[in-house]
Amino acid sequence: MSALSLRLPESIHRHIKEIATKEGVSINQFISSAVSEKVSALMTEDYLIARARRAVKGDLSKILAKVPSRKPIAGDEL
Hints:
The chain has one domain. The chain is built from three helices and no strands. The protein has helices at residues 10-23, 27-54, 57-65.
């Protein structure tokens, strides 16, 4: 584990403190969790972009052609 010195505007610090208290976690835990979520989101975006680049356009049509034609379940019509 490493330490990081971070300067935040007072208003953000106040919000973080309020939320962390409400959630029953320390400020450090809250910030670590928030950063982890952001890193995960960015990594997921990068993965999806890379995966989309490998896609073959015709493959989707082939897959969709295998889907049976049936009426939608009640409520799913829209």
